[in-house]
């Protein structure tokens, strides 16, 4: 019999530096898991996994569940308990990873490499807080209220716009180019690796304050009568979403919920336009339409109203250097060729 190796102690969330947008997005998703999760884009080594694991520690008794890259749909949503079925007992539901993640954090690394069916199920459960299974002769529903954290490296591909839109928030991380900031982060990591418990003790007070603030913010969000807002907030949300050219109204709803979660985190008495402005980028980053659907260079130059024929010819010559311009060629009727082999002549008749 083998025993499971103990899990390493997580890096304290309070000690994460250099990624303020990431910290805010994760905390907002923890305050209101119904936002739909956080998508983190960025290169390798930018503390994506470290931050997700540290967030789970702030939630009381929260599990941290990782979805393997090769996981099946059955292992995610749950399926029929084959052991019970083969033994001749009644049909029984075998919970999946969504059930295990209830109340905690579900972390999906390289989510852009997963099949669309798995991503659909993840996002459905993250937004609704429940998992409904109708398959294999069973009908089951259970709570699945968790903070979904998905990461991806844009160099390895992206998600379809339909799936991107269903993520509540998105953060785009970049490599830290400030030398002093890089040194501070490296020193903190080395200190944690050398003495994890001592490092955590140093940040224990800040950790406790974050955990307590998270509990208070969650209670405010759960109170439907708390955190009122007026028409100015609605107008600010609508203006930002229209300017970004988003499709549908999901961005408006997520922005309002994110502003409400931020106001709860700040301990404010009401939602203001300042809260809307502070969450807008994380809501619109992955939903914003490009400024122009077709670049001007993609259109035929002759179709442009100010095009010059000479410039167009020169431009065409630059694109295909050395090509000769077409010239008209006269067409001459071709005379039929004589047969190469003459037909056989008839033999003379004998007298």
Total helical elements: 14
What's the CATH architecture name of the largest domain? 3-Layer(aba) Sandwich
The fraction of residues in strands falls at: 5-15%
Number of domains: 2
Largest sheet: 5 strands, parallel
User: Looking at this structure, what is the CATH superfamily of the largest domain?
Assistant: P-loop containing nucleotide triphosphate hydrolases
What's the CATH topology label of the largest domain? Rossmann fold
Low-confidence stretches: 292-324
Report mean pLDDT, rounded to a whole number.
82
Strand order within the widest beta sheet: 2-5-8-1-9
Helix content: 40-55%
Order of helices and strands: HEHEHEHEHEHEEEHEHHHHHHH
- Give Rg in angstroms: 32 Å
Q: What's the total count of β strands?
A: 9
Shape, per Cα inertia axes: globular
Give me some keywords for this one.
two-stranded antiparallel ribbon; 11% strand; alpha/beta; Helicase, Ruva Protein, domain 3; Rossmann fold; globular; five-stranded parallel beta sheet; 351 residues
Task: Write a structural description.
- The chain is 43% helix and 11% strand.
- It is globular and about 60 Å long.
- The chain is built from 14 helices and 9 strands.
- Helix 11 (231-244) packs across helix 12 (250-266) and helix 12 (250-266) crosses helix 13 (273-284).
- It folds into 2 domains: 13-202, 3-Layer(aba) Sandwich (Rossmann fold); 223-289, Helicase, Ruva Protein, domain 3 (Orthogonal Bundle).
- It starts with 19 loop residues before the first helix and ends in a 32-residue tail after the last helix.
- The strands form 3 sheets. It has a 5-stranded parallel β-sheet, sandwiched between helices. A two-stranded antiparallel ribbon has the order 3-4.
- With 351 residues, the protein is of the alpha/beta class.
- The protein has helices at 20-31, 48-58, 73-77, 82-86, 97-100, 116-128, 161-164, 179-194, 196-202, 204-222, 231-244, 250-266, 273-284, 309-319, and strands spanning 38-41, 64-66, 79-80, 93-94, 105-108, 130-135, 138-143, 147-152, 169-172.
- A hairpin with a 2-residue loop joins strand 6 and strand 7.
């Amino acid at each position: 019999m083998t025993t499971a190796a103990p899990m390493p102690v997580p890096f304290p969330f309070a000690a994460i530096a250099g990624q303020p947008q990431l910290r805010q997005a994760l905390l907002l998703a923890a305050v209101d898991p119904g936002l739909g999760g956080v998508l983190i884009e960025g290169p390798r080594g930018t503390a994506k996994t470290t931050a997700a694991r540290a967030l789970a520690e702030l939630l009381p008794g929260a599990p941290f569940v990782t979805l393997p890259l090769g996981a099946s749909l059955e292992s995610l949503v749950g399926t029929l308990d084959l052991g019970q079925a083969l033994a001749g007992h009644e049909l029984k539901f075998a919970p999946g990873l969504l059930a295990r993640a209830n109340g905690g954090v579900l972390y999906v690394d390289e989510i852009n490499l997963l099949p669309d069916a798995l991503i659909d199920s993840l996002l459905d459960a993250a937004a609704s807080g429940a998992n409904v299974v109708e398959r294999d002769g069973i009908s089951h529903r259970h709570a699945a209220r968790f903070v979904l954290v998905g990461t991806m490296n844009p160099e390895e591909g992206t998600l379809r716009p339909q799936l991107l839109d269903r993520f509540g928030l998105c953060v785009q991380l970049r490599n830290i180019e400030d030398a002093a900031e890089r040194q501070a982060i490296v020193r903190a990591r080395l200190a944690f690796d050398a003495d994890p418990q001592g490092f955590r003790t140093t940040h224990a007070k800040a950790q406790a304050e974050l955990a307590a603030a998270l509990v208070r913010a969650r209670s405010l969000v759960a109170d439907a009568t708390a955190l009122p807002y007026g028409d100015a907030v609605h107008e600010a949300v609508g203006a930002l979403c229209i300017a970004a050219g988003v499709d549908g109204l999901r961005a408006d709803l997520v922005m309002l919920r994110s502003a409400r979660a931020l106001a709860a985190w700040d301990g404010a008495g009401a939602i203001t336009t300042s809260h809307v402005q502070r969450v807008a980028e994380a809501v619109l980053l992955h939903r914003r339409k490009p400024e122009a659907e077709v670049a001007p260079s993609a259109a035929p130059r002759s179709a442009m109203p100010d095009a010059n024929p000479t410039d167009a010819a020169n431009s065409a010559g630059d694109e295909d250097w050395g090509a000769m311009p077409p010239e008209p060629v006269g067409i001459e009727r071709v005379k039929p060729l004589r047969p190469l082999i003459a037909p056989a002549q008839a033999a003379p008749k004998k007298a």
